[in-house]
Every structure is written in C-alpha cells, then in structure tokens.
Amino acid sequence: EEKHLIDAVLLMGGNIRGGTDYEEGSYFSLEALEAEIKSDEVIAVVPMPGWLLAEGVQATHLGDPIPGWMQYDNGVVEDTTQDPPVVTQVRGRRIEPDRIYQVATKVSDLTNGQSPPWTKYYKEHPELLPPKGAYINIQAELMSYFARNLWRRIWDYLSRELDNECDAEPLDAEEEDCDEFGCDPELRLEHLDSDNDGKISVKEMQAALAEFAGLSVDDRELSLAKFVHDYADQSGNGEVTLEDLEVFCEEMRQADTIHERDMWQKAFEKAPEIIQAPAVLDEVTK
C-alpha cells in the first residue's frame, strides 16, 4: 500500500476458496491460509477508470454467484437495492467515474472474458497491464501484513513492559512526555536479543512471538518469524539491530498524535490522494 497507494482490491471468487467456516476467536494458521489461497496465486496493481471499475464489477454480478463473481475489499460499496447492483463507493468515498484508481487484482481476470467490459478495455489497451515482473504473490503479501501487525504487537507489549508509552496509547493520562524520554531502542533490544550479540535473530523473533505476542509457535516452522524479521529489518541488510529499532522510534517521535503513530494499521484515516492518470491513459477514452 505504501508503494502503490492501493485504492481497491478486486478478486474473482475462484481465486479465494472460502469454503471453510471459522468460529469466532479461532486461530487462523499458516496451513489455513495455504488452504484458502493457492501458493502461486499472484496479483498486480492496475490503473482503472472509475466507470470501468463499476461496469466491470457489475458485469459479474448480473446473475447467481459463480467462480467469476467479483469480490472486493470493504472500502468498495455496492448498492444492492438496484438491479443490477451498482458500485457507489471506492476507498470509502463516492466513486468518481473519470478518476484513475489503482486496483490490486489478478491480471488474467481482466482478460479472461468473465467481465466483458474489462476484457474489451484491456485487450484494446494491453499497454496498461503491468509486466509479470511487477506481480505480487498473494500469500507473501498477506504474510507481510500479518508480520507488520505482529511486530506492532511485540512493540506495544514492550512499551508497556518498559513503562514507556511513546508509541502506544498511554495507560495513564499523567504519563510523561514521549519526546522527553524517547523510545528506548536499547532497552527493547535487550529484551529481544537473548544471546546479547547485538542483533535479533529469526529464532529470537520466534521467541518474541511466543512471549510478547502471545502466539503458540513450533520451532520447526519459522516462516512467520522470518516475515516479521524481514519487516523489522528496515536497513534491508538481513539483520535486525539497534539501528533498525531506532528507525521505528524516530517514526513515533515524528508523529503528532497516538492515532498517527499507528504506522502498521492503515485504513481510511486520511483523505485519499487523487491519482493522476498515467500518460498513456490521457489518450484513452471510454
């Protein structure tokens, strides 16, 4: 989302199995994720005019649900009182027919014929489709999302443990000013670096998931810990060190409010920016 500023996610029903009912409060495991989504399923970010987004979704909702039935994220709103249903909102705002939205979707679904408006448009303008090198694996993207939120859970736990609420909602209204006392990256490192070698390993991240995030972990399966480790590794050098923790602390110091400090959980807090059409779209009309 940070790289592309995604406005909507659209996926045809056949891409997400969704055949299992999960009880409230049940644990959604890696195995469950793999069962719901094929490991090789990929998506990409595609520019799409508002009118085309609406017509394309509507075309798959003309009859009973089928594998080609288009599903969407909760920022997309469809008026089902009309027949056929009409998309009225994108990204939680009224849809703008002439605006170019950035849509995450499976590229092949745009040209497979199940949504005639999309098939016609993108076959006439294949230059608008991203190259395969820009595709994103769905499982990997979801794992990254989970990792970001788990890192936040570890971070907030340590904030409470260290009695330092600079980056989490204060438990006491009389809490000392965050900027005065800082985020204590060194103390955080001490809690996470069990062997005191100055860096947080994947195994130490696994231990943190159990101890600080409250997860039930199996040391034979480190996939999730690796994703959390990769997210915490802000320098991208393969190691999580004091410098990486200082980056997160600095982000928190720069935020003016607790709400803005919630860097890991983005929804519709801020008014979306208007995405300008790519140059190639300037010549494309409905």
Overview of the molecule:
This protein has 286 residues and is α+β, with helices and mostly antiparallel strands. Helix 2 crosses helix 3. The longest helix has 24 residues.
Fraction of helical residues: 25-40%
In order across it, which strands form the biggest sheet? 3-1-7-2-8
Oligomer: single chain
Got a strand count?
A: 10
> How would you classify the helix and strand content by structural class?
alpha+beta
Q: Secondary-structure element sequence?
A: EHEHEEEEEHEHHHEHHEHH
Q: Overall 3D geometry? A: elongated
For the sheet with most strands, the description reads: 5 strands, mixed
The tally of helices reads 10
**Overall pLDDT, averaged?**
79
Radius of gyration: 22 Å
Keyword list:
single chain; 286 residues; alpha+beta; 5-stranded mixed β-sheet; 3-stranded antiparallel β-sheet; 10 helices; elongated; disordered C terminus
Briefly characterize the structure:
The protein is an alpha+beta fold. It contains ten helices and ten strands.
Task: Give the secondary structure arrangement, pairings included.
Layout lengths: L7 E5 L17 H7 L5 E8 H11 L9 E3 L4 E3 L6 E5 L2 E2 L5 E6 L10 H9 L11 E2 H24 L16 H4 L3 H8 L6 E2 L1 H10 L11 H10 L7 E2 H13 L3 H4 L25
Parallel strand pairs: 1-7
Antiparallel strand pairs: 1-3, 2-7, 2-8, 4-5, 5-6, 9-10
